[in-house]
TrEMBL record:
Coiled coil, from the record: none
Compartment(s): Endomembrane system
Matching InterPro entries: Fatty_acid_hydroxylase, Sterol_desaturase/TMEM195
Main location: membrane
Example GO BP: membrane lipid metabolic process
Domain of life assignment: Eukaryota
Bilayer disposition of the protein: Multi-pass membrane protein
Gene Ontology MF annotations: glyceryl-ether monooxygenase activity; iron ion binding
Domain named Fatty acid hydroxylase: residues: 116-247
Protein name listed in UniProt: Transmembrane protein 195
Functional summary from the UniProt entry: Glyceryl-ether monooxygenase that cleaves the O-alkyl bond of ether lipids. Ether lipids are essential components of brain membranes.
């Protein structure tokens, strides 16, 4: 697999994972000059996940991750970035439109003040993106992907939704009235990257840092399905927003991770899309238009006659003895899956590296490969076969339309 980072930028690439870049080295005049920080982080993601596994074995004598859950999470991360092959992210595209047409002032792109303002601004907006993603059911349908693992390790950080960016862009638009897109393009990436390392159980407490920063300890609570964890700790980099807006909870009882109603599957399309279908089915059972609409815009736990966020009395009680869903596969099948997956990871990396010259077959085989890998490994049943056919159909459509779309979006290339 080709590694994008040059020798001089290895340190910068690593530090970008912890937001340890100075304004000097991460300010750019034009959006086109902004590095693809997230894409360049792939080798560091892998390195740190391997390190976490090794430290986990040394500390606990067992594995902190499983093949099935880990690969499902990483594949969700890969799928979530596929739209970027065809277009700039929604967040940046919408941002640039507002900047071009409606900006009120132009903060200087090379000022440290602008950099720090953008740092706070993006993190503040992220708090609200994240809070709405939990409190509005149709947005939760996207974000639940990130919460669907019953494990909590670095791979969980990569379990991202492919549909979430199509809604989250709205929340950042106020910044486009003053902050240049090139500055925003840096901070939106670094904010996301910071949230990688906090997905671990191996770091227990960071002392005074816990007051200000979002840490593994605080984010574990966010991923919990214990009652005290629900709808808490939305912060991205800073936890102060939760302290200010009353959504902070400290870690107490053992956290049990995952969705309140675990999905008990590793079928990657199901993980991404099942909640939309669930919401639709729920909405059609209600009689009034108001109730039908409320199903989508109120909280996921809302029911007719309840407050906006509903209550959690119907939730299964968390006992602390819950065991994550983990069907057993033979070691040889697991090795096969892991090797196959590594090859796909290579293809994925190549796709992004060469996206302007990528041919349609490459894209199509990527679809096919990911799907086959999971078909063979995890859940071979009728429903999955149907989903796979749909998946292949999408792949075929994409492979036919990709060159035309690409030429439209990147006419200069
Ligand atoms: Zn969340
Ligand atoms: Zn998380």
């Amino acid at each position: 697999m080709a590694v994008e980072v040059g020798s001089g930028s290895v340190s910068r690439g690593f530090r970008s994972l912890f937001f340890m870049l100075t304004p000097n080295e991460s300010s750019f005049q034009k959006v086109e000059e902004v590095p693809q920080y997230v894409q360049q982080a792939t080798p560091f993601f892998i390195g740190l996940m391997v390190l976490e596994l090794a430290v986990g074995v040394l500390r606990t004598g067992g594995s902190v991750a499983t093949i099935s859950d880990g690969l499902t999470s990483i594949s969700a991360g890969m799928i979530s970035r596929l739209p970027l092959l065809l277009m700039r992210g929604c967040e940046l595209s919408a941002y640039m439109y507002v900047w071009d047409h409606f900006r009120l002032v132009e903060l200087p792109w090379d000022s440290a003040w602008t950099w720090w303002f953008a740092f706070l601004g993006v993190d503040f907006c992220y708090y609200w993106v994240h809070r709405f993603a939990h409190e509005v059911a149709i947005l939760w349908a996207a974000h639940q992907v990130h919460h669907s693992s019953e494990y909590y390790n670095l791979s969980t950080a990569l379990r991202q939704s492919v549909t979430q960016p199509f809604a989250s862009w709205v929340f950042y638009l106020p910044m486009a009235l003053a902050v240049p897109p090139s500055v925003f393009a840096v901070h939106i990436q670094l904010n996301l990257l910071y949230q990688f390392w906090i997905h671990t159980e191996l770091i227990r407490d960071l002392g005074p840092l816990e007051w200000i920063f979002n840490t593994p300890k605080h984010h574990r609570v966010h991923h919990g399905r214990n009652i005290y964890c629900i709808d808490k700790n939305y912060g991205g980099i800073l936890i102060i927003w939760d302290r200010i807006f009353g959504t902070f909870a400290a870690e107490r009882d053992k956290v049990i991770y995952g969705l309140v109603f675990p999905i008990r599957t590793f079928e990657i399309i199901f993980v991404q899309l099942h909640y939309y279908v669930y919401l639709w089915k729920r909405a059609v059972t209600y009689k009034t238009i108001g109730d039908k609409l409320s199903t989508f815009i109120n909280g996921p736990s809302w029911k007719p006659g309840k407050a906006r966020l509903g209550d959690h009395v119907d939730n299964p009680k968390v006992t602390g003895k819950e065991v994550p869903y983990e069907p057993t596969w033979s070691p040889s099948l697991q090795v096969y899956g892991a090797l196959h997956f590594l090859m796909l990871l290579g293809t994925y990396h190549e796709l992004f590296k060469t996206k302007l010259v990528c041919n349609s077959q490459c894209f199509f085989y990527f679809y096919l490969g990911v799907k086959l890998c999971f078909l063979l490994l995890f859940e071979w049943d009728f429903k999955v076969v149907q989903a796979s056919l749909l998946w292949l159909l999408c792949g075929a459509v994409e492979s036919c339309t990709y060159p035309a779309v690409r030429d439209q979006l990147h006419p200069a290339s």
